[in-house]
Amino acid sequence: MARMQFFLLFLEIVLAATSFLLGQSSSSRDIMMGNSSLIDGQTLISSGSAFQLGFFSPVNDSATSYIGIWYYNLPPRESKVVVWVANRNRSVNTSMASLNLTSDGNLILFEKGTEVWSTGTSAELNSALLQLLDLGNLVLTAGNSSRTLWQSFDHACDTLLPGMKLGFDIRTNTSWHLMPWTSATDPSPGKYVAKIETYKVPDFYTVSVNGSLKLFRTGPWNGQWFSGLPQMGNNILVRDVNFTYVSNQNETYYIDEYQTRSPQLNRLVVDANVTYKSWSFVEGEWRVFLSFPSDDCDYYNHCGRNSVCTKGYYSTSCRCLEGFVENKSIVGCTRKEPLLCSSNQFSKEPGVKVPDTVNATSGGNISLNACKKLCLDDCFCIAYLVINGPYGCITWRGELLDLRSFTDGGDDLYIRLPESSTSNWKELVWAIVVIPVLLGILLLFCAGVLVRWRRNRASTSRLQLQFPRVQKVIHSVILVPDSISTLDVLPSYDLRTIKAATNDFSEGNKLGEGGFGIVYKGQLEDEQKIAVKKLSRYSSQGPDEFQNELSLIAKLQHRNLVRLLGCCIEGDERLLILEYMENKSLDAFIYDKTKRSLLNWQKRFNIIIGIARGLLYLHQDSRLRVIHRDLKPSNILLDKDMNPKISDFGIARIFEGDNALEDATTRPVGTL
Ligand SMILES: *[C@@H]1O[C@H](CO)[C@@H](O)[C@H](O)[C@H]1NC(C)=O
Ligand SMILES: *[C@@H]1O[C@H](CO)[C@@H](O)[C@H](O)[C@H]1NC(C)=O
Ligand SMILES: *[C@@H]1O[C@H](CO)[C@@H](O)[C@H](O)[C@H]1NC(C)=O
Ligand SMILES: *[C@@H]1O[C@H](CO)[C@@H](O)[C@H](O)[C@H]1NC(C)=O
Ligand SMILES: *[C@@H]1O[C@H](CO)[C@@H](O)[C@H](O)[C@H]1NC(C)=O
Ligand SMILES: *[C@@H]1O[C@H](CO)[C@@H](O)[C@H](O)[C@H]1NC(C)=O
Ligand SMILES: *[C@@H]1O[C@H](CO)[C@@H](O)[C@H](O)[C@H]1NC(C)=O
Ligand SMILES: *[C@@H]1O[C@H](CO)[C@@H](O)[C@H](O)[C@H]1NC(C)=O
Ligand SMILES: *[C@@H]1O[C@H](CO)[C@@H](O)[C@H](O)[C@H]1NC(C)=O
Ligand SMILES: *[C@@H]1O[C@H](CO)[C@@H](O)[C@H](O)[C@H]1NC(C)=O
Ligand SMILES: *[C@@H]1O[C@H](CO)[C@@H](O)[C@H](O)[C@H]1NC(C)=O
Ligand SMILES: *[C@@H]1O[C@H](CO)[C@@H](O)[C@H](O)[C@H]1NC(C)=O
């Protein structure tokens, strides 16, 4: 699943790179000079046509309008995706409102002559200039030196665009933060704030406006991403994005910058969740590529203090840290025995989220051993951890809050233990090392016996597995929309022609043997090369039904699918005439030591992209929906230019007949 997403991401980048979308110039105005105004119906459009500024109404009623910025070039244009609102708190009646840039450099929104909102700036007479930039920033500058008086990027609403800062400006003592809309139709600030808390170890939180309730936190910066969001790391390479965290004597902020992808295709939005969205050319819509909280364990301190939250496949569980026991009177766990100043043992809690840093201290970029010593030197230190990046060694006093485990990623936390609990050390080793090892050996032995037994038994590679407790896991094989006609029929060849082409199905013409039958190479009289699949078994369908079925499959045409050219039905013989693929199948390459080296990374990449395209077509873009159910390297064929083509799609239907049409089947199929 995750790999599939990766392929699609690559695909997006390719499409975005070749896309027409951004960068064309426009004759519309993007500038407003001093002593001029903007009224209903007038807008500013950024020079690259990415953004538009003007009046909009979230309820489509001109009496409740706002000044805002939205995407201009990305569809759907009808439903504006608003990224910034000036007068969040108070709507205006557009028929009586105007946005004036005064000659002395103040941008004011008037309704019936009264001021509703303003930037409160001033400049020398007629030197101010308002411009909507192509990154979505509305900038007010003054004087011939273009001094920035005000910019919308400093007054974010619920959306963080690339290039916008999230953090704290020490010089002006103000924070750059995000606040969600109250509702989809009301842009006024909602109950929560997403901000970077500048403790000794900064952390990105979403908290209630009154500050008393933390909703979730990302963990501190590890130099590349927020440590509590390992998913973020996966996106850096694929999306070609630099997530950056800057901290100096003037300011401390988080910012993201895109390198090759157009920055305008990305935004971070705060609503009930914090969500990274990216415009998808494949889907034609905004797709979420990162969202938190992503599960219950992401909610702040879900398991209470000194307790680790683990997300399982079906449920979420809580577990006390080593040395702690559950305490019914509080949420979470308390120490079994008090810590003494002389306690010098630690237990390692691997792959967890860095606990809340509100009271934590950073020892800077030092080694793990130096960090341990730092903790031992402090009688009250209860845990330490070293992350990458500027904060390095982090130590805690008091309690550990908001811990979760990660299956992939996360950091190793060292928890200080009271001395006594280390005396059971040997028993512990016995319990956690020796017993599992013995169990493991026993299991391996059983597995070996089982495998041998299976090998002797399984004569074909295609197995239909039956599980005692089945879940609805696999959906329909093919859904046939009513509108599809089966009138135009697939070309039919007579058996004599095919016999001639394949040298009477000679052993020398045999290409391989798949789950459904033997495949032969052939050449028609007009020199066209073909592959002939001789079906070894099929459902009891009559010849007409069989041919109709094939006609449906033949309609699935895509450059990454093997084409069905025709069929041959005579007596009991059922033959499929397919496109001939010079380079046979992918497994012939990847499982062969010498041929493997012929596949360089570029070729592998192209093959991956091709498979992803073919699957996307089968799953979504074709008129028939097909779930392959047996995708494997031997079903990926390669043409003479090493372009991949998926084969054997939809064939299962021929074998399984009407059962395959069910919307949901409870039976897993495929290759063992
Ligand atoms: C603003 O413009 C109006 C007409 O366009 C003009 O009469 C007025 O003098 C201008 N005000 C300033 C301060 O330039
Ligand atoms: C908004 O209202 C106008 C007129 O009332 C209507 O023509 C238009 O379709 C509406 N737009 C949306 C998006 O509802
Ligand atoms: C908005 O202004 C127009 C024109 O002045 C007026 O007819 C309309 O009633 C106003 N709407 C509201 C809700 O005040
Ligand atoms: C909006 O209103 C709230 C409370 O009414 C106030 O705290 C906040 O400063 C206002 N925001 C703006 C941008 O005027
Ligand atoms: C704002 O600009 C409009 C159009 O230029 C003008 O009619 C109006 O008087 C201005 N409002 C104020 C309060 O200056
Ligand atoms: C630019 O501003 C400086 C100082 O405000 C002034 O001395 C200079 O003449 C200005 N230049 C132009 C071209 O307006
Ligand atoms: C910064 O602002 C906060 C409240 O907004 C205030 O308590 C604090 O004193 C200010 N600090 C400085 C240095 O102005
Ligand atoms: C703060 O806000 C949260 C959420 O809106 C609310 O549950 C809590 O009671 C508030 N606390 C105080 C002290 O107002
Ligand atoms: C901080 O601001 C001062 C004055 O604005 C500037 O001289 C200095 O270079 C800034 N420091 C950094 C690290 O940006
Ligand atoms: C991203 O980071 C790399 C390496 O740190 C740097 O070379 C590149 O200039 C950065 N790109 C942007 C857009 O900041
Ligand atoms: C927030 O995320 C949760 C869990 O992923 C989801 O159930 C919920 O619908 C999301 N809320 C919004 C407003 O997107
Ligand atoms: C941080 O310290 C304060 C004051 O000692 C305490 O009230 C609070 O619970 C501590 N928070 C955490 C997360 O340890």
TrEMBL record:
Segments passing through the bilayer: 428-453
CDD domains associated with the record: B_lectin, PAN_AP_plant
Keywords from the named record: ATP-binding, Disulfide bond, Glycoprotein, Kinase, Membrane, Nucleotide-binding, Serine/threonine-protein kinase, Signal, Transferase, Transmembrane, Transmembrane helix
Secretion signal span: 1-16
Annotated ranges, domain Protein kinase: 505-672
GO BP annotation list: recognition of pollen; response to other organism
Domain Apple: 341-418
InterPro entries in the record: Bulb-type_lectin_dom (IPR001480), Bulb-type_lectin_dom_sf (IPR036426), Kinase-like_dom_sf (IPR011009), Pan_app (IPR003609), Prot_kinase_dom (IPR000719), Protein_kinase_ATP_BS (IPR017441), S_locus_glycoprot_dom (IPR000858), Ser/Thr_kinase_AS (IPR008271)
Reactions this protein catalyses: L-seryl-[protein] + ATP = O-phospho-L-seryl-[protein] + ADP + H(+); L-threonyl-[protein] + ATP = O-phospho-L-threonyl-[protein] + ADP + H(+)
Domain of life (superkingdom): Eukaryota
Binding-site residues for ATP, renumbered to this chain: K534
EC number(s) recorded for this UniProt protein: 2.7.11.1
Enzyme class: transferase
Pfam family, one: S_locus_glycop
Stretches assigned to the Bulb-type lectin domain: 29-153
GO MF annotation list: ATP binding; protein serine/threonine kinase activity
PANTHER family in the cross-refs: BULB-TYPE LECTIN DOMAIN-CONTAINING PROTEIN (PTHR32444), OS01G0958200 PROTEIN (PTHR32444:SF247)
Record's protein name: non-specific serine/threonine protein kinase
Organism: Zingiber officinale (Ginger)
